[in-house]
Amino acid sequence: YFRLEKLPHMWCPGCGNGIILHCLVKAIDQLCLDQDRTTMVSGIGCAARAAGYLDFDTLHTTHGRALAFATGVKFAKPELNVFVLTGDGDCTAIGGNHFIHAARRNINLTTIVFNNNIYGMTGGQYSPMTPNTCRATTSPYGNLERPFNLANLAIAAGATFVGRATTYHTKLLTDLIIEGYKNNGFSLIEVVTHCPTAFGRHNKMGSSADMLKWQKDHGIPAMRYANLTPGEQADKFAVGILHRGEAPEYTAEYQKLMEKFQGGS
Ligand code: SF4
Question: GO molecular function terms here (predicted)?
Fold first, then answer.
């Protein structure tokens, strides 16, 4: 159904990004989306490369600005299916402001955050999603900062669909992308992905297989996670649908306003 661009990819051996790309293509295939009415917008970084391997109209934009460009695309052409592919550094540091406002507006974008817990492509610096005490090139003695809980941030800012999966939970990830797309508003799908080169190497997490096993053991289905004690939750995280909300969708509200204005009422 889809043609993947026959480009040599630039991801490291064992990187989780290809798994996310596979789940995205599978979700789009299951949704039977029209390839000519579907577009991918990305920023800069390892995750952002994903848009270039897909045979869609894509925008590979500037660092942190994927959501700003995607907002423009959706605003100009509301009929398009717009997916945003971004990494944790791209989305939550440079693009953090765009993230909270896209969620607040509830604009109909399906945003997939590849969370490898570090800036991979730009040199292994810590990001706002790097766990406390973890090592990076800019935190050789361990990260002092507390990371964002991106799902909670999105919910607080007004997103109407929030889910989380990992590169181990591939069926769940495909289903979350489908559900996120069906939501008429801002959808966040956070994917905890394994990065054996930057994050894994700095933190001695072993091979890709070891990192996938870590995800299996630490990513707990949301219902089960809610029943854990605070002590049991401490080194785990919930996966699955974390939030569904109701709010007017921004582009539709804007069109209604313009019709009212242009009708003179
Ligand atoms: Fe993947 Fe990490 Fe390599 Fe980037 S640095 S391509 S995220 S393994």
Answer: 2-oxoglutarate synthase activity; thiamine pyrophosphate binding
